[in-house]
Write a structure and sequence with these properties.
The chain is an alpha+beta fold. The protein has two domains: about 90 residues, Roll (Pnp Oxidase, Chain A), CATH 2.30.110.40; about 220 residues, Hypothetical protein af1432, CATH 1.10.3210. The chain is built from 13 helices and 16 strands. Strands 1, 2, 5, 6, 7, 8, 9, 10 and 11 form a nine-stranded antiparallel sheet that branches. Strands 15-14-13-12-16 form a five-stranded antiparallel sheet. Strand 13 and strand 14 form a beta hairpin. It is globular. The C terminus is likely disordered.
């Protein structure tokens, strides 16, 4: 009989949504009888749900967090018996350890090949800066400059599909609009690449990504950067920025209607309930559905006045929690496969005591990417390139995040 696992004082999540807690979670691996593998079972003792058990039953995967900070995933679970409220039981496919935190993706080391060159980032920043100052001065947008930047981004994304994604860091809150638009455009293009969009589609998608938040230039900074909850009136004003953006772009000749629709629709939700028009499904343009994912991901992984940046893993959980309502499942699935739980550029520690840089993901296994050893288990820095595909090393795996400061690694290759 295989060993039973018990966790005490467990909090329960589905995606990022808090479901409840239990005094004990028991995992009972299924035995193999002859050629037949029996299903694994679990028991929640003293289960307390925030809402009701039905909210738990409709989900596919569970995340469990124990008191020592460790996280676990229960995959493909199904509750089979709720007759005894103190011992709710069911069956599941797997029970595996995850990690509480994953390293930030906005960190890369010197010498690595990146998706967007520093030169192109500088050109993009200047273009967005010109656009912002022009709109604030009441002038039109330099459409040609925006399109040229989009074409540069498309070219670099297509030429380096496996390179590390180097999103721009936020240096001050007032600079958020500058860098956020460039980051969103880059992420949009990577999703577009995963969806096999044409070059023409990619150019329009890139332009729309760069301009998607232009309407926020009509929103006061006191609202954009407010440290705390917005009032109803402030939130209503904030929700006006997609319409403002469309109006600005409609006055700018040369911007395609597809790019304009990104500005107008990137806050619509796939199952309805978004703004400004509460559209749903295919009523929302594909490009806006792509931008919705990119916009939320970069916002979550960026420091803002009202909260600290989340790790990619935490952001992924929020996105995944919205797969049934907020985001197009096809688009979000393409995003997750492209980015993985360990985004390229993440610094991680391995079970043998060494440290590594994630180079690229393995689509068939989001937790076993291709890595480069940067420090061995004895603490010696590795200058030569020792590249390892973790799919080929069963005894080597990622243990958790590594602190770049502790390793004396700096992100100065942007």
């Amino acid at each position: 009989m295989r060993q039973t696992t018990k966790l005490t004082d467990v909090t329960i999540f589905t995606g990022y949504s808090y479901i409840g807690s239990c005094s004990e979670f028991v995992w009972i691996p299924g035995d193999k009888i002859g050629d037949r593998q029996m299903p694994s079972r679990f028991i929640f003792r003293n289960l307390k749900c925030e809402y009701d058990v039905e909210a738990l039953m409709i989900r596919k995967d569970l995340y469990l967090r124990s008191t020592d900070g460790k996280e676990y995933i229960v995959s493909d679970f199904q509750i089979t018996d709720i007759n005894d409220a103190d011992n709710v039981s069911g069956v599941a496919k797997n029970f595996d350890l995850l990690f509480e935190k994953f390293p930030e993706m906005k960190t890369i080391t010197v010498g690595e090949k990146v998706i967007v060159s520093k030169k192109t980032q500088v050109v993009a920043f200047k273009a967005v800066s010109n656009m912002i100052h022009a709109v604030r001065a009441g002038h039109g947008i330099d459409v040609q400059q925006a399109q040229e930047v989009s074409e540069k981004l498309v070219e670099e994304v297509l030429q380096a599909p496996d390179a590390i994604m180097n999103l721009m860091d936020i240096k001050s809150f007032d600079d958020y609009t500058f860098t956020h638009n460039i980051n969103v455009a880059t992420i949009c293009l990577l999703i577009g690449q995963a969806l096999n969009l044409s070059r023409e589609d990619m150019n329009d998608l890139g332009s729309g990504g760069l301009l998607h938040d232009v309407g926020k230039l009509k929103i006061p900074l006191s609202i954009l950067n407010k440290d705390g909850k917005l009032t109803d009136q402030e939130f209503a004003e904030m929700k006006s920025h997609p319409a403002y953006g469309y109006e600005i772009l409609a006055k700018s000749r040369g911007i395609s209607e597809r790019a304009r629709m990104i500005a107008l629709q990137h806050h619509e939700k796939f199952q309805g309930g978004g703004y400004p028009k509460r559209l749903k499904g295919q009523e929302i343009s594909l490009f806006a559905r792509i931008c919705a994912v990119a916009d939320v991901y970069d916002a979550l992984t960026t420091d803002r006045p009202y909260r600290v940046a989340m790790s990619p893993y935490e952001a992924m959980k929020i996105l995944n929690a919205g797969i049934d309502s907020h985001f197009d499942p096809k688009v979000l699935t393409a995003f997750i496969r492209k980015f993985s739980l360990y985004p390229a550029g993440s610094l991680v520690s391995l079970n043998d005591g060494s440290y590594a840089l994630v180079l690229k993901n393995n689509p068939s296994s989001v937790i076993r990417p291709v890595i480069k050893i940067v420090m061995d288990s004895s603490g010696r820095r590795i200058k030569e390139r020792v590249e390892i595909n973790l799919l080929e090393y069963k005894d080597l795996f990622i243990k958790g995040p590594a602190d770049p400061a502790a390793l004396n690694i700096t992100a100065n290759s942007r």
